[in-house]
Fold:
Amino acid sequence: MAVAIARALGIGNVIAVDVSDDRLAAVHDLGANMVINTVASDRPVNLRAAAEDALYGIIDTVGQPSTINHAIESVMKGSKIVLVGMQGGRIPLPVPTLPFMALSLLESYTRSQGELEELVEIAKSGALKPMPIWKRDMQCLCDSLDRLRKRQVVGRIALSPS
Structure:
């Protein structure tokens, strides 16, 4: 969804990073200009090169130490990193060099009512491409949760009573 929102807001160069080719194909369909499978690459070098040394913003939808460190190592001076996912853990910060990076590390959980209203208006306008939704019967709840844990789901699962 982050890719669709970025495109709807007019962000010109959207690069999606994941470990799953299926999810990368889905975000490409949502408007990512480029997709990078981090399992098959040297992440910081390739991500910065993909952005042509102009990587000033990252939305981290995972929020675990490896992805946050990857973001910090990849961005340019004066960048913003927004944490959407919060899987937890601890990260060591490069304290001596942090002030020189002029880095903003933000969370996404305490946004304003106005920002929510703006997002709803963007969705109403039809500018957001819909993400894949897998409609399943409520009896598939346990299997759905298991697939989510195993990261086998692309998009969202919508459960409904039979």
About this structure: Helices lie at 2-8, 21-29, 43-50, 65-74, 98-101, 113-125, 141-149. The chain is about 35% helix and 20% strand.
